[in-house]
Amino acid sequence: MLDMTPIIGELDKTFKEAIFKNSFQLYIVFTHHLFNARQKHRRPNSYYVYPNVCYDLNFNTILRFLSGENVQTGLGSFSDHYVNPAKMFLTHLVGASQHSTPFLEIGDGSEMDTAALIILIILHSNDFNKQNQNWQEPFSRLKKVWKEVDAYFKFKGREESSWGELILLMSELQSMTVRVVELFNIMQFLRGDTLMKQVETKESFDKCNVDFVTKN
Q1: Which domain of life is it from (predicted)?
Q2: Is CATH 3.40.50 the classification given to domain 2-9+19-215?
Q3: pTM above 0.85?
Q4: How far apart are CA 136 and CA 21, in angstroms?
Q5: What is the DSSP letter of 40?
Q6: Digit-coded pLDDT (tens) for 78-123
Q7: Quick one: which of 208, 203, 204 has its CA closest to 195?
Q8: Are 100 and 34 in contact (CB under 8 A)?
Q9: What element of type H or E holds 188?
Q10: Nearest to 95 by CA among 164, 21, 183, 158
Q11: Between the CA of residue 205 and those of 28, 101, 121, 172, what are the distances in Å?
C-alpha cells in the first residue's frame, strides 16, 4: 500500500514502517469493509472479511468462532465469558454491513475513492508531532495531493456531497476500529495468542461453500 502511495512511497524503509504501524489498525478495518463491498457472489446474511471468506451473521456461529468451541480458559465455561464479546463482534459486523459497506458499493466503484480514503487513513493516523519538521514534511506534501484529488472529483462532475460522504465513512471506520481494538484486547485476555493462530488456519473462518460460489 505505502509503496504505491504518492509521496510516502519515496520515503526510506524506517519511515514507511513507522507510518505503517500507525495506520495498521484503521487500514485493516477499511480493507475488510472493502472486501465485503466488492464480493460478487454472496451467501445471504454473511460478512466477507476476505474474498470468498465470510462470517455468518449469526450469534451462535460468532460465539463458536471466538470461543474456539472447545477452548478451556480456566475461568469457567465459554458461555459465561464469550457471550459479551460475541455480541460486540456481531454488532460490529452488522453495523459495518449497514453503514460503511453500502457506501463502498455505490457509484462506479472508482479506485479514486479508494485512493482518497487511503490518503485520509494515512493522514489521520500520522498527522501529529507538529514540532518535528522532518516527520511533518511528507504529510504536508500529501495534503497537496489531497487537493489534486479534490480537483479531479470536480473535473469528473462529482457532487460536493461526495466529500462529506467520504469524511462520514472515515468517521465510521474510526469508531469501528476503536471497537475492534477493544474486542481484540478482551480476546487476548481470554485466549492469549490462540485466537490469532486459529485465524491463520483455513478452518478458522466459516468459509463460503465452493458450489455456491461457482453456481452464482
Answers
A1: Eukaryota
A2: no
A3: no
A4: 16
A5: S
A6: 557 888 999 999 999 998 888 766 666 654 456 777 778 888 899 9
A7: 204
A8: no
A9: helix 161-191
A10: 183
A11: 17, 20, 27, 25
